Amino acid sequence: MLKEFKEFALKGNMIDLVIGVIIGSAFSGLINSIVNDIFMPIIGLYYKRH
With contact defined as beta carbons under 8 Å apart, do 40 and 46 qualify? Predict the structure, then answer.
């Protein structure tokens, strides 16, 4: 079973999955930063007036 998993992991499927997760994590952090640092202050100013 370990041999089969090793063959599967080295085929590229596992490596592609890991790279996708890493890129997804980085993109998630970027989006959270943009929302919290740019959009939320603007929305806060709008609601502060009303």
Answer: no
